[in-house]
Fold this protein.
Amino acid sequence: MRTLVRNGLILFAQNGPNTLKIRIRGSKLQVLFQIGNGEVEIAEADYDVSDKELHTVTLTENAANMTLAIKGPKRNISKDFTFAQSATINLTALITNEASNRQLRLGHYSGSSEDWFYKGCLGEVRIGGVLLPFYVKSDFTNYNTSVYLEYFEAVDVSVQKHRCSTDGSCGHNQCKHSATCQEGYYDYKCNCPAGFSGKWCEQNINDCTAPSLCGQGGKCLDGVDSFTCRCRGGYSGIR
Ligand SMILES: [Ca+2]
């Protein structure tokens, strides 16, 4: 994952009475577990993930314990925690049990009033090694059922998938003509000086588009945020 937002719901998994969430709250990664309408238990990792860097997050269970691991370019952490209700948590059962209310959501849960949309990048998301679901069947090239015996097919995908491959930093920006670079979480932006436009401010805006800029049939010559007039014979002056 890679993001700049300080709050956002990443994963929501519900199956029967069990609800598991992974979210960012105040730049910290949290794991939440709830049984029915019971107490919500929260484990939080002391790690700022809202820094535009790429982080790999892993949640594993072993007996009554869970381990939340975060790997990033600056440091790696591993936090063990135990929920009071841990004995009843089974991550795999969260997706394999066939309760009628079973659902798995990434990015936002519409029934929630306290969790925000996640804005940023998500790479592969896997539960028990099985790839989750930004994908529809046509995304799998060479798809056939004998190879892909196990997969999740998305019911609804409303994300911009293609833009996260771009580094949002200004370290290698292509901004032209002394444009200033503004960093973003999936792409940078060039703020153009007067007279230039385009994604990289590479285009000299045509300043001669207005009619009759030059009088008496004079020819308009485009400049940078300016124009000059080449006068016909017998005429002179700026315009
Ligand atoms: Ca111009």
Notes: The mean pLDDT is 83.
